[in-house]
Structure formats: C-alpha cells, structure tokens
Design brief:
Helix content: 40-55%
Number of strands: 8
Mean pLDDT: 86
Low-confidence stretches: 1-10, 310-331
CATH topology of the largest domain: Beta-Lactamase
CATH class of the largest domain: Alpha Beta
Distance between the termini: 69 Å
Structural class: alpha+beta
Strand order of the largest sheet: 3-2-1-6-5-4
Shape: elongated
CATH superfamily of the largest domain: GAF domain
Strand content: 5-15%
Length: 520
C-alpha cells in the first residue's frame, strides 16, 4: 500500500488512465441500443483502446453458426480505391479457424505472427483476406465476448497494433485483461440490444398485424396502411438525400423514421369504431333498402295496371251496351293509359337504381328524383304511401360519393378514435409524437381539414407527408370496389391541384410526384 506523500508511478498513472478510458467506453456501449451501430462501436472502441489497425466482430447465433458481422481497417480505408462495403456472412463454426476456436473454447488467443503459428495449435490462419486486399496481417488478439453467465455471444478480433510511425508490434500481455473486460461489457450491451431489438420486432409485428386487421374489415381499405407506410418512408428517405431546395436542411433520424412509420401504420386504426356498413358502402343505399324499393315499385305498377283508367271504365259501364262497342274501346284506352303509367314508373325506378350506383348526382337527376319523391300511391288498405321515404330520399340525394353528411361525420370520427387508441400505447420518449402524427393526417394547410382544423405551421412535416400519401393511395388503390383505380399520373395532377389551392404541402407533393416515389 502506497504511503501518504508517496509519488504515483508512471505505470500506475497509465493503468488508471486505461481503466478510466475503459469505463467511459462501457458507458458509451451501454447507451447504444441499436444492435448494428453497437457492433460497429464495439470494434471501433476496441481498436482505439489498443491502437489496432483493423478489427472484426463475430456473433455466435443460436443455431451454432458464427456470423462475420463487422470488419474495419484503417489502412484499407485510406487507400484511393478502398475495398467495397463489407457485407456480413455466416461461417462454419470450427476449431480450425481462429475465431471459431475462441468461440468454442471461450479462451483468449494472442498471436505475435499469424504466419508463424506452431503446429501444436489446432487453428490455422486463413490468408484469403490478405491476398484479396494486398494486406499483411501480423499480430492478432482474439477475445471471446462473454455475458454475465459466462456464455460466449461472439468473438472480437483485433489485428496489427501500430505505433506513431506505423510500425506493427505484438499485443502486450498487459492489455489482455483490459480487453477481456471490454469484451465482457460489449457482450452485456449486445445482450441488452438484442433483447430490445426482439421486443421492438414483436411490437412492430403487433402494430402491423393490428393495422392490417383493421384494413381487412373493408375491401375498400385492404393494404392501405401498408402502402401509406411505404410511401411515407420513400418521401422521408428522399428528403434526407436533398442537398438543395426546400428540404436541404431537413433530415430524419432513425428514431424519427420509426416514429413516422408507426404513425403511418396506425393512422386508420380508429376505423375499428366505424360501422362496417359505412366502411363497406358501395352504393348510396344498402342492397336490402334497394330491394325494398324495387318491390314497392313493382307493387305500384300492379296498382296502376288495375286502377289507372278506373274512372274511364266506370263511365263506360254506365253507357248502354249497344253503343257500338264504346265500352270495349274505353277499356282499350284505359289499358293504353295504364301501360304508359307502368312504363313511367319503370323509368323512375331505373333512375333511382342508376342514382344509387352513381358517384355523382347531376342537377337534372336531382330534380327528377325530387319529383318522384313527391308522388304517393294508395295501398290495398287505402293508406297514402310516398314513393320514397324521407330517409331514402336523403341517401339518394347525396351529390358526390355515396355517404350522407351524417355518415361522413361518422367516418371523420376515426381520427379522434385513432388518437385515443394510439395515445394509450406506452411509446418511448423518442416516439412520443406518434399519436399526434397519426391523428392529423386529414389536417389541411388552409384549415379546412379535420379534426382540429389546423393551419400552416401547426401541421408538422410528418403529418403533411401522411396527408399527401393518404390521398394518393385513396385515388389509386386497385382494391376500391366502388370505382376503378385512378392512374398515377391523374392522381398526381389532383395532388398538385390541391397543393396549388393551398391545402397540401407543395414541396412534399412536388418531391413525391416529380421523383415518382409512388413507384416503390
């Protein structure tokens, strides 16, 4: 034990500095939850800590396969023609490879010269990497990454530590214990990141399954949320690539991309509270209501055949029968009159049926419909019955589309229901805006949208993106049974017209349309 006033030895000072640096690395590793970034960070920090020119990381999978996940090398990256980007690939787990030996045995391997391995060791150095890249590997330190239960999760491999002059030297024995400590911290961080990734994957699956199930309630919307999510991601990634123009200073972090994706998948989940008869409404009237009208008009036609011209027949029957067949001619006249009446009724029914199927009601057809609605007939009990009920007239009189004002209001409530549902999902702080984004995809820049009538800057970029792609998919989707899918070019024209009118974000629309991001 050092007495008071005794000077600290240089070796002690250097060791303390390394330990402090190791602690800082551990803190950095524990704060990184993205597995891919974490693996890169582990290799980078280990190389920085040991002065290694290169490093690799292997993950031992549950199926006992060793995956080569990360490769870094300063010498190669500084060359004018660096090798192409590294792609992870699996390796056969074997004691004959150095990484495989360490993964199987859990022992550290420190090699001074990989080209001078003694014949007594079971592993051999594979020179393929050196030959492909005109590189010379000399010293190597290969360390197992063990978690708290001493289970090997992977292997950290470091090569060629260099001094300030670029001279390669062997890894000193003194660094082995410290690098083993770093590898253990890395293993714990990997375990945590893997667990978080698994939970996130499960959470995303539940979101996608729930949204898909809601979409599947109606053939009008099947696949809609998936396409909206894909379009939104395409726009966000395209914005990230912009170095000039309105989006030059705008970018999306990984968390923001996740936030947008979740909002896109969940934007219509509130439709679970909208009755299916409204979601599935192909025509203005239900099939049952239309069948009731058809039966009613068939009954009216039957009454007309029996009673139109009834007054003529009454008068004719009071005349003497010897008036030269005047009674017969009168009956013939009544038959002709009733035939015309029946034909008119059929034409009125045809108009009603066409109106029921139509997506647009002209002024002329609306006037004709109102004339029909003003007519009545008497049933067998003598009751006066209107040709059409007030409710039937209301449904048939919709000028555009097939939803009444009340039904459209019910459809609009889905965004409020979406917010109420999504708000109760325990999102992390980085995803806290998902409820607002998902519930504001019908807000328009001029304040004419819903549910809150937000204007301009009150509507964030993410919601503007969702608004554009939601409209585009509604226009172009091939799964809308009440109309044919609109061509992308025509839908693009509508988007640009809405942007010019100040309802949609013109920068988002122009990016989406001009780069044809819908062709994903």
């Amino acid at each position: 034990m050092r007495s008071e006033g005794e000077k600290e030895l240089p070796e002690d000072s250097a060791l303390q500095e390394q330990i402090e640096k190791l602690n800082q690395i551990g803190i950095g590793l524990s704060s990184e939850t993205n597995l891919e970034d974490l693996l890169e960070l582990i290799v980078f920090e280990a190389r920085e800590f040991t002065g290694a020119d290169g490093g690799s990381l292997y993950i031992l999978d549950e199926d006992e396969t060793l995956y080569f996940n990360v490769s870094q090398n300063d010498t190669l990256s500084r060359r004018p023609d660096p090798p192409p980007g590294f792609k992870p690939y699996p390796l056969t787990l074997s004691r004959e490879s150095i990484a495989g030996y360490v993964a199987i045995t859990g022992k550290i391997v420190n090699i001074e010269d990989v080209y001078s391995l003694p014949s007594t060791v079971p592993y051999r150095f594979n020179p393929d990497f050196d030959m492909r890249n005109d590189y010379v590997t000399r010293s190597m330190l290969v360390v197992p990454m063990k978690d708290r239960e001493q289970e090997v999760l992977g292997v950290l491999q470091l090569i060629n530590p260099m001094d300030e002059t670029g001279k390669i030297f062997p890894f000193p024995k003194s660094v082995e214990h410290l690098i083993m400590s770093l590898a253990s911290q890395a293993a714990v961080a990997i375990r945590n990141a893997t667990l978080i990734a698994d939970i996130k994957a499960l959470f995303e699956s539940l979101i996608r399954y729930s949204a898909t199930a809601i979409d599947a309630r109606s053939p009008h919307t099947a696949g809609h949320s998936r396409r909206v999510a894909a379009y939104s991601k395409a726009i966000a990634l395209a914005i990230d690539e912009q170095s000039t123009g309105p989006f030059a200073g705008v970018s999306f972090s990984r968390e923001q991309l996740e936030e947008l994706s979740y909002a896109a998948w969940l934007h219509d989940i509130g439709k679970i509270g909208v009755p299916e008869q409204i979601l599935d409404k192909n025509n203005r009237l239900s099939d049952e209501a239309m069948e009731s009208i058809v039966n009613r008009f068939e009954l009216i036609k039957a009454f007309k055949l029996c009673f139109v011209g009834e007054g003529t027949r009454d008068r004719s029957t009071t005349e003497p029968s010897g008036q030269g067949g005047r009674e017969e001619r009168s009956i013939d006249g009544a038959g002709e009159e009733s035939g015309k009446a029946v034909q008119q009724i059929q034409e009125e029914l045809n108009l009603i049926q066409n109106t029921n199927r139509s997506n647009f009601l002209s002024d002329e057809d609306l006037a004709a419909l109102q004339v029909i609605a003003s007519k009545t007939y008497k049933n067998l009990a003598g009751d006066t019955i209107p040709y059409l009920s007030d409710k039937e007239v209301e449904y048939l009189s919709v000028r555009k589309g097939n939803l009444t004002a009340e039904e459209y209001r019910r459809i609009q409530t889905h965004v409020e229901l979406t917010y109420n549902i999504v708000e109760n999902i325990p999102f992390t702080k980085s995803l806290q805006n998902v409820p607002f984004f998902s519930a504001s995809h019908h807000e328009l820049l001029d304040g004419s949208g819903y549910p809150k009538g937000l204007k301009g800057e009150e509507i964030p970029l993410q919601s503007r993106i969702l608004a554009v792609v939601d409209i585009f998919d509604a226009l172009t989707a091939a799964d809308r049974p009440y109309r044919r899918a609109m061509a992308s070019e025509k839908a693009s024209e509508i988007l640009k017209a809405e942007a010019e009118a100040g309802r949609l974000d013109d920068d988002v629309v122009n990016l989406f349309v001009d780069q044809k991001l819908y062709e994903i």
